[in-house]
Design a protein that fits this description.
By secondary structure, this protein is mainly α. Helices cover 51% and strands 0% of the residues.
Length: 49
């Protein structure tokens, strides 16, 4: 079962942090930083600022 098939398991890492969030990115896989670098950078910017 993948994380996308189990919404509870998919949301657990985000819930473990007071600053955590979850963003579903369609058509992404294990290498989201390569496939969608702009989305990764935007997410880091939101947390860092």
């Amino acid at each position: 079962m993948t994380a996308s098939a189990d919404p509870i398991a998919a949301s657990m890492p985000a819930a473990m942090s007071s600053q955590g969030s979850q963003q579903i990115v369609p058509d992404s896989g294990h290498h989201i930083q390569i496939d969608w670098p702009d989305i990764v950078i935007a997410a880091i910017d939101r947390i860092a600022t």
